[in-house]
Amino acid sequence: MTFKSFNPPERILMGPGPSQVSARVLSALARPTIGHLDPEFVRMMDEVKSLLQYAFKTKNEFTIALSAPGSAGMEACFVNLVERGDKVIVCRNGVFGGRMVENVTRLGAEAIIVDSPWGRAVEIDKVQAALDANPDAKFLAFVHAETSTGAVSDAKTLCKMAQDNDCLTIVDAVTSLGGVELRVDDWGIDAIYSGTQKCMSCVPGISPVSFSDKAVAVAKNRKTPIQSWFLDQTLVMAYWGGAGKRSYHHTAPVNSLYALHESLLMVQEEGIENAWARHRAQHESLAKGLKKLGIEFIVPEDERLPQLNTIHIPEGADDAKVRSYLLEHYNLEIGAGLGDLAGKAWRIGLMGHTAQSENVALCLAALEDALN
Ligand code: PLP
After folding, report:
1. 243 alpha carbon to ligand 1 midpoint, in Å?
2. Who is most buried in 35, 38, 83, 103, counting CB within 10 A?
3. In the prediction, which pLDDT does 242 show?
């Protein structure tokens, strides 16, 4: 058998991630590979750390880019902090909250599940009731931006409630980082993870992670060893530990980190608050156009994520056929429904570099064509 080089088609990525990667970030990816302990690479890693601190709005010393996707970021938070027998209150309002529950139970800990309807924010009253009923709970875990439904939850309030009840917070910011307001230090988040392929508009496969000093102390003072060697952040700390102190832990994805450095630079140049505002403005313009097409949102207006628009599939439209039509005729990818919303919803992503007016216009025109 003979094979040829793979040349992917050029798509417009308006699904739930990965989002569009700019030419600037792609060209950073193609720069010469150097050693992952080369002093120049180490210097760049220090900059990645500072730029991540900027994006997360934190001064947390332990702020790193984990060499693995968002799912590993999730697992890293749970496996480092949670021990067998611990009580963890987990908010579940979509697929990814469900994965948090899986993480907790696989560690032999007890998940107190607070269910909220799919397509809605986490219900604050129910969380308060769970905190009241479980004064011995050690952690409160929730997904800030539920990518499976397009709902944003009130992270600030949830963190305050956790602090008032002596719980540490574990927050999924895979889809929220860079797309909506997120303030790790001001809100007192203890452990947070994200992904590079959403509003950071970088290549997939890296997970920004940040732990507060309190969370670092919990990881360092456990009764039992951390079950995962690769995700043991107390070992990774030496690898990300600042210039001159770096020692080998694993071989970093060197070129992907060049790409992340470049995409974080772009976020900093734009200003994170401006990036939040751009996502909101593009969402509003998409929402206006969808209304004209008679297409309705699943999530109530004040709980909608600007970067992930979940809409009802119009009556009579064939889910798979419409998505294939968009791909074939417009090179445009939109997302299918996930979990409970499979076959019922489409997910239109406006994440990072994708959140531009020309993409909104293309998506609206293409949908109008596909539905007629
Ligand atoms: N959490 C949320 C909210 C997500 O949207 C995703 C991916 O879409 C993940 C976790 C998992 O990230 P990854 O696919 O990079 O492993």
Report:
1. 30
2. 103
3. 56
Q: Whose CA is nearest to atom 2 of ligand 1?
A: 174
* Nearby residues of 8 by Cβ (< 8 Å), 6 or more positions away: none
Beta bridge partners of 334: 14
Complex ipTM: 0.99
What is the CA 251 to chain-centroid distance, rounded?
Answer: 23
Nearest CA-CA partner of 132 in 117, 114, 120: 114
Dist. CA 71–CA 259, nearest whole Å: 20
pLDDT along the chain (372 residues), means of 10: 96 98 98 95 95 98 97 98 98 97 98 98 98 98 98 98 98 98 98 98 98 97 96 90 74 97 98 98 98 97 98 96 97 94 96 98 98 93
Which atom of ligand 1 lies at the shortest distance from residue 205's CA?
A: 15
State the closest ligand 1 atom to the C-alpha of 207, by its place in the atom list counted from 1.
15
Which residue minimizes the CA distance to atom 12 of ligand 1? 70
- What confidence score (pLDDT) does residue 145 get? 98
Q: Which amino acid is at 19?
A: S
Which of 13, 66, 71, when mutated, tests ligand 1's pocket best, judged by the most ligand atoms within 8 Å of its CB?
71
CA of 123 to the centre of ligand 1 (A): 22
